[in-house]
Each structure stands twice: as structure tokens, then as C-alpha cells.
Amino acid sequence: MDEFDESAYVPEERFFAKLKRKSAENPFMLGALGLTLVAMGNMTRQLLKGDKTGFNHSQRYRVMAQIFAIGVFAGGMA
Questions:
Q1: Residue 46 lies in a domain
Q2: With a cut of 50, which residues of the chain have pLDDT below it?
Q3: Is 14 inside a domain boundary?
Q4: In terms of residue numbers, what domain contains 45?
Q5: DSSP summary character for residue 70
Q6: Residue 76 falls inside a structural domain
Q7: Which DSSP string corresponds to 2-62?
Q8: CA neighbours within 13 Å on the CB side: how many for 74?
Q9: Distance of CA 36 to CAs 8, 14, 25, 45, 78, Å?
Q10: How far is Cα 22 from Cα 16, in angstroms, rounded to an integer?
Q11: Per the confidence metrics, is the pTM higher than 0.85?
Q12: H or E element, residue 73
């Protein structure tokens, strides 16, 4: 039977401590998330205004931002 190794025990992190640590590990992820949220907000605004062309452009920006976010995430994993 294996004994419990106290040196390997990592206590549970609080949310903001974990966010700070993860941001330090991959600093571009928060920026990519911000770009995606701005694009989605702009897309919603264009939809409510009834601007079909602006909405279409905003969807393209959102897709580009999400691709950038996925690339940043994948790059941080490597």
C-alpha cells in the first residue's frame, strides 16, 4: 500500500490565484479572449441596429479572433 506523500500535495487554488498563474504561463490568452468578446459585442450591436453588412463583417472578425484564441491556446500547450 502506498503512503501519502505530503510533498506532492498541492492545495486547491483560489480562482484569482489560478487566473494569475495561468495568465503568467500564457499571457496572450487573455488578449485573445478579449478580442473575441469585443468581436461578439460588436456583432450583437450590429445585429440590433439591423446593419446586415456590419453584422457579416463582425462575424468574420469573431471567427478570426476565435482562430487566434485557439492558436494561442494550442501554442501554450506545446
A1: yes
A2: none
A3: no
A4: 27-78
A5: H
A6: yes
A7: PPP-GGG--PPPPHHHHHHHHHHH-THHHHHHHHHHHHHHHHHHHHHHT-HHHHHHHHHHH
A8: 6
A9: 37, 25, 20, 14, 22
A10: 10
A11: no
A12: helix 52-77
Instruction: Please enumerate, as own/partner, the contacts of 74-78 that have beta carbons within 8 Å and a separation of 24 or more.
Output: 75/26, 75/28, 76/25, 76/26, 76/28, 76/29
**Cell match 485573445: residue?**
32
What is the rounded distance in angstroms from the CA atom of residue 63 to the CA atom of residue 61? 5
Place of cell 498563474: 21
Query: How many domains does the chain divide into?
Result: 1
pLDDT at position 68 is 94
CB 25 within 8 A of CB 76: yes
| Domain presence at residue 8 | no
Average pLDDT taken over every residue of the chain:
87
Q: Which pLDDT value is given to residue 48?
A: 96
53-72 core/surface letters (b: 16 or more CB in 10 A; e: else): eebeebbebbeebbeebeeb
